[in-house]
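Following the same procedure, the fold was encoded as tokens, giving this record:
***
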Amino acid sequence: MHKVKPLLFILKKELKSYFDHPVAYIFLVVFLAINSFFFFRTAYIYNIADLRSMFSSFLWLFLFIVPAITMRLIAEERQRHTLEILFVQPIREWHIIIGKFLGGLAFIFIALLLTLFIPIFLSFYGDFDWGTLFAQYLGALLLGAAGISIGLFASSITKNQIVSFMISVVTFFVLMIIGYELVLFSLSGLVKNIFEQLSLSWHYSNIIRGVLDLRDIIYFFTATASFLALSYWFLIRQNINPKRALWRQLKIGIVVLIGIAIVINLLGIYIHGRLDLTSQKLYTLSAATKNIVKDLSDVVTVDFYRSDELPAEVSVTARDVTDLLSDYEVVSGGNLKIAYHNVNTENATEAEMAGIQPVQFNTLKSDEFQVKRGYFGLTVTYTDQTEIIPFIETSDDFEYRLTSLVRKMTAESGYTVGFLSGHQEKSLMADYLTLNQELSKQYNVVTVTIDSETGQFDTRPDILIIAGTSAEITDDEKEVLRTYINDNGKVLFLVDAVNIDMQTLQTTVNQFSLADLIEEFGIRVNSDIVGDMRSHESISLGGGVFSYVVPYPLWPRTTAAEGNPITSDISSVSMPWVSSLTATDQGKKIDSLLTTTEAGFSQLSNYNLLPDQQFNVPAEQLSQKVIAAAVTNQSSEAQSVNDMRMVVVGDSDFLTETYLQSNQQALIFFLNAVDWLAQDEELISVRSKQRQAAALVFEEDGQKNMVKYVNLIGVPLIVIIFGFVYLYQRRRITKRKYS
């Protein structure tokens, strides 16, 4: 207790010194107002329940806020000669350092607590990942702790507060900027790795993803401890005779402590251990992956090729991939073996012969840009089969890519997915290029036609996909399709009930959409265009300096319904000009997959697609619209392998190259649907881990403005009122005491 009381005394003293002056309230108001301004400036453009952009901006806010609140911690004591008073108290020098550090950290903690109003208010309109949010706040607190220790160190050097502020800003800035691409792209090899491992921003960026990696935690603790040790040294150095043994011992001890901290961080590659706080466990192997690699009948070998000279932005991905590969090897029980290859100029040919593509990037050497080549990919070998991932762009979908390859190579037989052609359907090699590439990783993908002479498919697929027919289908061809479905077929219909001319936005009802055939199996595809007044995308109009963004309800951001594996862990899928579905009484089991909110509406005949129109839809015409549905036989609760399965979606354009680049949830939805049709749902849980943050859904613009201005104006105003009342009461008490 005798050690705790001095710390509490210093802590209370520092907090009181902050809040007994208007400066603390000014700092809080400025921090909260700037943070809210920059966050809400873009928050409603993306409309997702995610605060990563806010936490990324903390790096720059802390760069000035933290030095401002720490510049006086010791410098002011030196200037006023009050340190001597503390020294004669029953307080040790380290009590002063730790107490002042805790006081500054408490101030940062209060500032962070006040930003909680943003996720709290937004949580009424979107589903936040609270595990990720906890990691982000913890990361911000660790960043604040490192910043406070830097500021304390700067304040211990001088009694001039301005000089202290500048030293703190420069030190913080250097440790932050050495982790940015601006600096790292001009470095290579060992130097780049050292800069990354010693960078505040690099470790902080890892944490705010939602992962507490032991290497990042160690970095912040060792960085904070190192600067506190330096602060302690500069505090007591004037009170110790340089000729005494204590002087040398302290000097050596602090140098050794800082040296150990640096070495530990530089050897971070050998430190393992992380806690994945994301709700989907995005950085942890799923149960499905573990089951697949445990049940391998023979050894799978993964050859991982990586060169040291890679762009800085690949560093985080490289660390994640290395960790995941290590996890694969551990959980496989020896069934999956990893071979690591460090690629350089001498063995680059070996990597290229294995199929790993070199990636070109720029580095800055001798004041000019030079082109470098790097390798970052892998090969998977099983018996006489080899599959290649030539370049790993991101770790977000790495587990799915590797697990699906292993699954495809080791499966006894694969399903054939056939895309119907001959009726102006979407093309696999033009419209659905990405779709084709992703689907081919797990299935045999072919194009099928109906032979008019035999009345059969030229190749009978296990799963049939009919995507956007817009030319006549004969009655005989419909009979072939009807027979296929009734014979327990597996079909995915992507239906365009309304054709749209993309140049003129003119519309015509599609007479060849196969809506009549689909209705026989319990789903009516309506000839409408659906919008959503609450949840939708925004589009850009104009060009150059006159471009502006407007909300566009006719591109609804549909909500994933619960209860079917297809929509497992999918938040929403954007649909351009989609039609609604209605269930009919045909004795089938119908599951809604994608729907609008309760603010959905339909344009039934007089279609107006112009984005700059006023969407004034009466409240009585708003209701939830079904966009995608799954159909099975009602006859049995437990579906057998031979049961009919069907998925119907009121649009085929959302999977084309134009929309898929910014709509990854659509690709996941489609692949999940194919897995469900194949009744091979093991990979769905792996693939769905790529999901984006949930959408923010507001009933009206007034709710958006309420959340925005409560945080931008309301919370800072509360701080101002509290500060005014507190300082006024304190002044009255002081006057009464001395009157």
In short: The radius of gyration is 31 Å.
